[in-house]
């Protein structure tokens, strides 16, 4: 038996930490489970098999599982003494395992599901076989260099029309390299995106040639990513460095109020209507050492309102006694029933019933995590506690989430810009970005012309902490807290040991691309780190963001500030199980996102040379992953607000080790300070984009290439615009309107589509820039005729 246990431990220890996303959560303090099992052999029959997740109640049961020769896969986890093991079993094996209280928690794959996967694989193979490698086309998407702090890098993106074939490989050559360098293949959720290369270089090449193993070749000139720093003298008398430590929500509120009092002509504090649920919990204790005999006790009052004063004791008399409950003030005593030998005979469920009947005005008692409570209760005692450790000056009550509204004219007449931070509690740097930005705007207003221009002509909203309850919990109780503090879990997952896993991910709680509508990247499991909540907009914190967008409909731009990783992204932010994303921006809107991003990222770079990598810039699914129900998607799709996502804290290049190193959610403050400084630059860059956008009253110009005239055969028609602009067009001779076709993107990370004209066609179109200026001042809603038109004649 010793040898079996040693093998068992090797099998399981590597996976012990993986059960957070499962039905039960990990807590090393939780009691283990013991069970008395009979040694019943399991006969293996020749019958259909399936892969299931078994729940094994303790080591003895696991020993039986191993001894019986069940076919185990490599996945196993352990929590609270309970093992979850994936296994290949038959129906008769499942019946016999049940004799040891080993039950099926979930069926992972049965034969029907297996056949579906086989069919899916074959369909994929058939699709790939239709791709003709000999007709492959290569398209250069990016050929950039950049200098990031101490090193110069080359970055390439190339897309192959045969990229879906796993055997397609690309290699890059420049300056006559003897050995071409292979590109990496990037795909996500089954979809091929592109091939890429990122590496440090000594000399910047003039151009790069990429060759496919199928024989195709493409060459592109290398240009600088983000461009050169603008010439001219740096600003004089421009004050920065207004934050010097990580700030909890209480400090953030104090700083906001201070700024409101100091600059009443330029700023006001906006109080949002939906109060949080508070930095508070009921006091609890778990009495007992085994799951089936444990009693969970929860105070009816919040911990800070008296629950923390309660104490409970389970005692046993050596003489025969009945089960009794005595309440004296804040002390609850349970006299367990004993037999004539003085042995306890009260079960956990007996104690629970007695407590709920006799002490129900103080506490509620329940079994531990859904166990029946048939085990014998054990004499013990405990003081109830809510487990919260914040200092006394931190309020436990529901909080009013606040925003700073900065502007000389705060009456809705100026374009609005929103920056909001700390949806995720553990992201301590992000509030500093907003506070540093606010201080810069207010303290440089009097003597810096550029700052005055922004404050005079914009309506700026800054929310330092969307999630003050969760942030407080992160600072004082559990620093990895991601969610808010609202517990939506059922009773069986609401004992004290589960407390770190409660809460809702506020950046998954919105109504666009939600997991509740079938989108990927969130969970309906209440203990998951990306729990989306019981329903869309269930949380007051997300309701506050909706309120801001509704109340101040002049907001045109927004920045959702997160950490870490150094990403700069925009919508769409979610896709479904078929990797079908939310509607992508039009080609013109996407062009504006890129152009504005170029300016913002250059501002970030100015501080210490940090470059947000081109591979981490773009629509969310193209550079990261699906994030179903995120707030930026809500603002973009529901409110028509251009919204970006900062992920502050770009990786740092380790020159000695020649690799990128992550900085974490809560880096040493020296690094956190630098991140706050550079991304405050970026946030001000967004304000500059908004200001220039507000000044734009110049209609765009557009043309087609090739232009009107005769052509010997079909042509690929391209639209060219003088600035980022959306093209509305018709090919059937009708007058173009806002209901006409819109020029879209050609594909992931690709430019605008081209139109194939293979017969004589009159193209009619007009362009609209992001500021709403229509080309030639054409009015599509009237009967105007001053749109563009051109006839493309195709010879037959």
From TrEMBL:
Signal peptide: 1-19
Gene Ontology CC terms, in alphabetical order: extracellular space
Pfam families: CHB_HEX_C_1, Peptidase_M14
GO terms assigned for molecular function: metallocarboxypeptidase activity; zinc ion binding
Source organism, top-level taxon: Bacteria
Any single biological process term in GO: proteolysis
SUPFAM superfamilies, per the entry: Zn-dependent exopeptidases
Record has Thylakoid as a keyword: no
Region (Disordered), start-end ranges: 776-796
Cofactor(s) needed: Zn(2+)
Family: Belongs to the peptidase M14 family.
Listed name of the protein: Chitobiase/beta-hexosaminidase-like protein
Organism listed in the record: Aquisalibacillus elongatus
